[in-house]
Amino acid sequence: MIEVTETPGLATLQDLGRHGSLRYGVGVAGAMDRVSLAAGNLLLGNEAGAAGIEVPIFPFAVRFTAACRFALTGADCAARLAGRDLLPWSVHAANAGDELVLGLPRAQSGCRAYLVLLGGVDVPAVLGSRSTQIRGAFGGLEGRPLRVGDRLGAAAPSQAGPLGIGVMPPALTLPLALDGLDAMRVLPSAEYESLTASSRDAFWAGTWKITAQSDRYGYRLAGETLAFEQPVEMLSHGIVPGVIQVPPSGQPIIQMSDAQPSGGYPKFGTVIEADLWRLGQAPVGSRIRFIRTDWAEALAAQDAVQAWLGDIQQMIGLWSDYAGAQR
Amino acid sequence: MTVFSVLGTTAALFEAGSAKATLATQQRIWAMAATAGAWPEVREAVPGMNNLMLVFTQPPADLAVFEAQVLACWQEAEPLALDGRVVELPVIYGGEHGPHLADVMAHTGLDVDELVDRHTAPLYPVFALGSHPGYCYLGGMDARIATPRRTIPVMRIPGGAVSIGGAQTGVSASDGPSGWNTIGHTDNSFFDPTRSPPVLLQPGDSIRFRADRVIR
Amino acid sequence: MTPGQAIAEFEELLEGTSITALILTTPIETITVRRQSGSALPVRPAGRFTVTAPCCGEFLHRHPLQPAPLVQIGQPVRAGAMLGLLRVGPLLLQVVAPRDGAIEAIADDGGLVGYGTPLVHLVTKDDA
């Protein structure tokens, strides 16, 4: 059980997303960095999709009102529990009364932290998910960001992983950079060939800044102005997180987790699902690159992420058995 | 000319190739959604305006084979005339809930009565849902009252706002930003996540607007 | 062989004999197992404690995301303090001090170790 004691805003409950209701106009929502959320859950012995708290603005603090096991993944935010420094990407045990403080993320370590509790945060699932749906105000905690004074409990765990463990963060084990900048792989869209050749070249060659007008709905990028050979009129069609739209301004917008499920702007392409977590950890003000990929490479990238999570789950299981047998 | 493309590895997008969305084509999209939505590779089939997004459970290893399967499904799709219901929405036109009524009148050159008559006359079929929970993409608006989207969107239009954007009309199902011209308000609830299905209207249903009040 | 394992073996050897004490002297430590009336409580080696690897892996002085090592030579530590990390595949196992003491020696950063490899030597106060 925890009580929120400090939050500058925009901290929300998220799981791996609300699927199956796009045809009702309900977007997917879910963690911006699903890999960090899943890894934190696996560390604890939770299902990978248990709900946790996504923290994008710091400092953020909670007080444990009961003893509780938890993990912190995502950005390394110099966390302290009852005044003690905590290792990132690790399991910890809090006593009743302990305060957990997440500070500003260390440089180069991402921008969103995930606090996961043993058993998962206990709120009702709505349309199959505990993710917060801001427009429409449902899911998560009352469909809104957390406020000071909010109390959250953890569901009873069906099992628990061992204490005293952590995992290597994916930024180190699944690196992807181009010319020293974080990079994301993109598959071109149906409208790709309608862009001018110089626009296409500029997109791949350029560095793109994530402007301050970027959030869970979308990242507005600053860079070269992109243009089409002829104006492209599109009928409204389904979109998913990662879709890169080219609005009339010519500055791309990457649709993110809270994107609406349909759109009418022409698209450059889509960031592949295996790289969405990298976007989720790219801070406002940072610069990124894009890498053109193909279907086979994109599938391989997805397999690599799944394999990494699978390895973690397997190794934790093995270590749990081994450590248990040693006692 | 139909178009098949992918949205990353998350989904495929099939476009029927219409310049303007037609109901006949949309009925074939509904049929296609019913069939493709049952495929093991497809987690959800999401109709758009004369197009269909197929969200993957797992992305197919052989994309060319999947594309052929999608195109064959389209070719075989017979128009699915969904037997929907007609929902009549009482609307208060103008006043504080219709801040852009005057702009639409100015653009179309119509007076308020003719504008309301032309907006309330048709039966609007629900083509698809999208944009936000419970929001319906409607067909059938009278081209005479078409008004371009606003250059500066309004940051917060309340749920129930009745608007015109280009050649389409629609009703916001919840508070949110909008670049359309808001001409009135209706009180209906279009979305309730605790109900099954959670939406008031689905593809195949139709909306009729009824003018309860016109505030000049 | 860890001190724990040695003590267990010596207990077995003493069982059923009239021997009252066994003393094992190694370059690192001296283990004395002395029979007491009733149960045979193991006597801890005086002055030194070695933390060993619980399995094979790569021993790290610091967390890969952080610049500073967890401990320094000579540093006093409390029981439960983090001394290093053992990387086993994707896992980072925490190597913690089992008791209060001071760091006397620490295995090389990045070294590959096996089960039972000494990782940290602690100088401890004599046990009561």
Keywords:
heterotrimer; B: 216 residues; alpha+beta; Gyrase A, domain 2; Cyclophilin; 4-stranded antiparallel beta sheet; 4 helices; C: OB fold (Dihydrolipoamide Acetyltransferase, E2P); 2 domains
Name the CATH architecture of the largest domain in chain B: Beta Barrel
Shape annotation of chain B: elongated
Number of helices of chain B: 4
Could you list the spans of chain A in which at least 5 consecutive residues all have pLDDT below 50?
A: none
Structural class of chain A: alpha+beta
For the biggest β-sheet of chain A, the strand order reads: 14-21-18-19-16-15-22
Could you tell me the radius of gyration of chain B in angstroms? Answer: 19 Å
For the record, the count of structural domains of chain B works out to: 2
The total strand number of chain A stands at 22
Task: Indicate the proportion of strand residues of chain B.
Answer: 25-35%
Number of helices of chain A: 5
What helical percentage do the residues of chain A reach? Answer: 10-25%
Helix-residue proportion of chain B: 10-25%
Gyration radius over CA of chain A: 20 Å
The CATH topology of the largest domain in chain B is given as Cyclophilin
**Mean of all residue-level pLDDT scores of chain A:** 96
Number of domains of chain A: 2
- The level 1 CATH classification of the largest domain in chain B is Mainly Beta
Number of strand elements of chain B: 13
Topology overview:
The complex is a heterotrimer of chains A (327), B (216) and C (128).
Chain A: E1 2-6, E2 12-14, H1 34-44, E3 52-55, E4 60-64, E5 68-74, E6 80-81, E7 84-85, E8 90-94, E9 99-102, E10 113-117, E11 151-152, E12 165-167, H2 170-173, E13 177-178, E14 181-188, H3 197-205, E15 208-210, E16 218-222, E17 237-238, E18 243-245, E19 253-255, E20 262-263, E21 267-271, H4 276-280, E22 287-292, H5 295-326
Parallel strand pairs in A: 14-22
Antiparallel strand pairs in A: 1-4, 1-11, 2-3, 3-10, 4-9, 5-8, 5-10, 6-7, 6-9, 13-14, 14-21, 15-16, 15-22, 16-19, 17-20, 18-19, 18-21
Helix pairs in contact in A: 1-5
Chain B: E1 3-7, E2 11-15, H1 23-36, E3 42-47, E4 51-56, H2 63-76, E5 86-94, H3 101-108, H4 112-120, E6 124-129, E7 136-138, E8 154-157, E9 161-165, E10 168-171, E11 176-178, E12 181-185, E13 206-215
Helix pairs in contact in B: 1-2
Chain C: H1 3-14, E1 21-25, E2 30-34, E3 48-52, E4 57-60, E5 76-77, E6 82-88, E7 91-96, E8 101-106, E9 112-113, E10 118-123
